[in-house]
Amino acid sequence: MEPDGLKDFEILIGLALVAVLLLQRFKLPSIIGFLATGVVVGPYALGLIKNTRLVEQMAEYGVVLLLFTIGIEFSLKELVRIRHMVLLGGGLQLFLTIMVVAAIGMLFDFSLSQSVFYGFLVALSSTAILMKLLVDAGEMDTPQGKTALGILIFQDLCVVPLMLFTPFLAGGGNGLRDIALVSVKAAAVILAAHFGSRFLVPWIFEQVVKSRSRELFILTIIFIGMGTAWLTSQAGLSLALGAFIAGLAISESEYSHQALSDIMPFREALLSLFFISVGMLLKPSILMKYPLLLASLVIAIILIKALLTSAVGVALGLPLRIAVLAGLSLAQVGEFSFVLSRAGLSHGLLTGETYQLFLAASIATMGLTPLCMRISGPVAEFVTGVLPNAWTRGRKVFAEAGESVTLSDHVIIVGFGVNGRNLAKVLKALNIPRIVIETNPFTVRGEKGTGEQIIFGDASKPELLSHARIEEARIIVVAISDAAASRRIAALARQMNPSIHVIVRTRYLLEMEPLFKLGVNEVIPEEFETSVEILSRVLKRFLVPQDVIEGCIADVRRDGYEMLRTVSRRHSHAVGIAGFLSGAEIGSFRVHKDSAVKGETLRGGMLRARSGATAVAIKRGEEITPNPDPVWQLREDDIVLLLGTPEQLRAAAKLFEPGKGSAEAVAGRSPKGQG
Hints:
Strand order of the largest sheet: 3-2-1-4-5-6
């Protein structure tokens, strides 16, 4: 790189840092800062950057890496699962948007060719922006995230056919024949990627991993990603599509997670250059010349895309809420539209002024994407609130609240991710009645086939909780990643069943206090639990005895959760016994064969003397005896409910462990126990 090129990069990065830091104070996304930086340093404003072509090339690599990492995060199996969303959803969205925009263009006296080309430009959405926002918000696995991803994949697949059709619109080229040829090539490349992911890629990585060289591993990732992108471009496909296919191939291997973590820093750095390069193309004077026209264009693009995409979602059977969320998230113009617009400019479908108008409106829609996603929730709630439930609940596999549920004293699990799935598995093994509420229709369809009692829908709607018989439920566990939705569900659950026990899994400690204010009984912060698991694994590597590890973990839990309990008590809505049991916990323990307490009576005092815990109930078979008599003798398979501090319950647990015979118990019994 020449010294002038290095200076240009220093200017770009320096101004971008300042812009991003300023925007973060106002809680605005960094993408807006990158776009603004490009406008300021571009040749049509201050003109600080001379070699704009170099920046554009680096930006193109950023888009390639973006599609590559999206492919790694995705999988061919998942692509097959949502194939109807890709083909039907993406196809309908693209076709309807092109037709509607073309009709509007002809109303304003543009030619048919120009109007259809305008539809091409507007129909594409920004994979770069939307995927980054969805990942940052943890919404990639939500139904609206899957819907948006399916439509984006179809759009990206159609970039090359649209590019080839552009000369045909301008009156030249062999558009239809070329499109058919490229479609055949794309199918061949995808088929080759499928077999490569099963055989070639795992073999390559296996050889590389044996070298134990991280540098070689990273180089192999780049070689596979960029190499596949180059080969597909030689076949007449786009670089970005090739990178996505390469990512899909890697996603099926066991090395995908390491590959993703290694390539992510490169993607983030180069992707920022893409947004800067887009801003550099804009002439700021166009903003002053046509302010009202630009504002109208921006509003029209957002409304048209949001309405049409939402309509497509409803047509496919999605609940209206999910369709609206996906529609507003896809309401911007995409980065590939800029590539397409240059082709249109060169073929005379765009004039210099219409090109700048399109550029300005497109950048504005990109910048407004975070706002659209922020208001999508309230807009969806408003729309679903004013329309009848029969219109908003979805159809077929997507329909909310299908067959009736006949459960009582059961557990409601909201979310069927890792936490929800593990909980449901254990409850099933213990024959504890449960029902799962999940917002991913593909998961619902798959789990219903295995016999899981699961319903599709949004648990923040009272109709769905009623369908899950929340009035008869004992516990509701909210195990989703959406903090706002967790708060709505918790508040609604408490309102519909004041006596239900509400447990919420959350990501961060900062999210706990708002949940306790809503009446949640227990909040499990992953941030805290992760620290406990890390502590345990570190101590194990130093061969610290297990009982010492358990003691250390108990100390951490006592200190940490005492703080959390303080927050809980501060916002507790219940007054009475909870205050007297502050710091105490209840646990149940099974009497195993040869455990220390087997054959002992409560009057004998071993349990009380050795642990300090108190037996409040005993279950023998199907019979439950509260406040058992002191003459009660413990037998094998009795389940004892104990009340005590965490330390007392931990000590009591050792007395119930199998293999702790009575001789050991007698040897360790205190004088008080003898009495």
